[in-house]
Amino acid sequence: MTDLASDVSGHGATAIAVTIAGSDSSGGAGIQADLKTFSALGVYGASVITALTAQNTLGVTGIHDVPPAFVAAQIDAVFSDLVVQAVKIGMLSRPEVIETVAAGLDRHKISQVVLDPVMISASGHRLLVPEAVESLQAVLLRRALLITPNLPEAAALLHTEPATSNAQVRRQAERLMKFGPKAVLIKGGHGEGADSVDVLLDEEGFLELSAPRIATNNSHGTGCTLSSAITAGLAKGLGLRDAVKAAKAYLTSAIRHSNELHIGKGHGPVHHFHEWWSR
């Protein structure tokens, strides 16, 4: 069983994480992937839904934004009752929702925040209106312990082209740090080569995490799964680097076992519960 699934908190309390993100009606990404990941890794998951999407393994056909006031109501309901150790933030499609979430983090003094700046779905559907990119930069990045953009998302945040070399990835990570997050993890899943290399920049410097690329059509929800796995590690008491390493190992294994699932006609999900279902 993965290290993340063991209780490392040391005090016997239930580890709790919250995902603030959009719902994926097909269950492979978004809120559903986050809650599956939390559960697989031994963390109790709660949620704040920011948007409803009509989607399946073939793509997104519709988005219904949750009104900011109701997003705030969910935040207050959850954080006024549950003792939350870490928060993952995913799809925030509009500036008003971004500002509402930022205000909620401040109101409830939440510091362990993993921000996955979801902009475009795997099928190419835009999940973030263009004007919301500026809000992410100005309002939310500085409130994050860690941000986890993929190569296209890092480029979009910096208004540049996606990095094509390790040196460019490192320079983009340094530029993203200037927006205020404590750490940046640029994911290499969209890169080329035999290995998928993620580059972490934190107060200790750079750390590269490499794993072999796995040939599979089941890649739906990989970004959501990685960021929520990191969040689970933080909720269990791991330090940032250990949480990132353990999350990378969990996702790699979930991708490796994804072909055991037969879900939909397009890009299926990774296998969040591979360690349990295989038994």
SSE arrangement:
Layout: E1 16-24, H1 30-40, E2 44-56, E3 59-65, H2 68-79, E4 86-89, H3 95-107, E5 113-115, H4 130-140, E6 146-147, H5 151-158, H6 166-177, E7 183-186, E8 195-202, E9 205-212, H7 222-235, H8 240-256, H9 274-277
Parallel strand pairs: 1-2, 1-4, 4-5, 5-6, 6-7
Antiparallel strand pairs: 2-3, 7-8, 8-9
User: Count of helices?
Assistant: 9
Strand order, sheet with most strands: 3-2-1-4-5-6-7-8-9
Determine the strand fraction and express it as a percent band. Answer: 15-25%
Radius of gyration: 17 Å
Number of structural domains: 1
pLDDT average, as an integer?
91
Structural class category: alpha/beta
How many strands? Answer: 9
Helix fraction bin:
25-40%
Within the CATH hierarchy, at the fold level, what is the topology? UDP-N-acetylmuramoyl-L-alanine:D-glutamate ligase
Distance between the termini: 12 Å
- In the predicted model, the low-confidence regions spanning at least 5 consecutive residues are 5-11
Structural overview:
It is a single chain. The chain has 279 residues and is of the alpha/beta class. The protein has a single domain (15-267), classed as Ribokinase (UDP-N-acetylmuramoyl-L-alanine:D-glutamate ligase), CATH 3.40.1190.20. The chain contains nine helices and nine strands. The protein has a nine-stranded mixed β-sheet with strand order 3-2-1-4-5-6-7-8-9, with helices on both faces. Helix 3 (95-107) links the parallel strand 4 (86-89) and strand 5 (113-115). Helix 2 packs parallel to helix 3 (95-107) and helix 3 packs parallel to helix 4. The longest helix has 17 residues, at 240-256. It is globular and about 45 Å long.
